[in-house]
Write a structure and sequence with these properties.
mainly alpha, two-stranded antiparallel sheet, 46% helix, 2 strands
Amino acid sequence: MLYSFPEIFLNNILLYFKMAGIYDRQRQQEELQRSDQFVDVFSKIVSGKPNYKTHIDVKPITLKCKNCNTTLDERQKFCHECGTKNEILPKK
């Protein structure tokens, strides 16, 4: 079945907004995990002791090129392998 241009265009726009929502949720979770208040509460739950500090490893978000699937740094504007523009979402 062939799709018309408007159908493909609308599907791509919907996909973009879904991915933007996922990216925003990942950012929010990362910011929450880095907050002192979260570390304090998590440390108290894990240890059962007040003033105990737990070290939480946070993995950076990895981006992949849409064209060649090369791993990119989140600050790269273009893929270093194929030159495709990397969609960088603004930080809030």
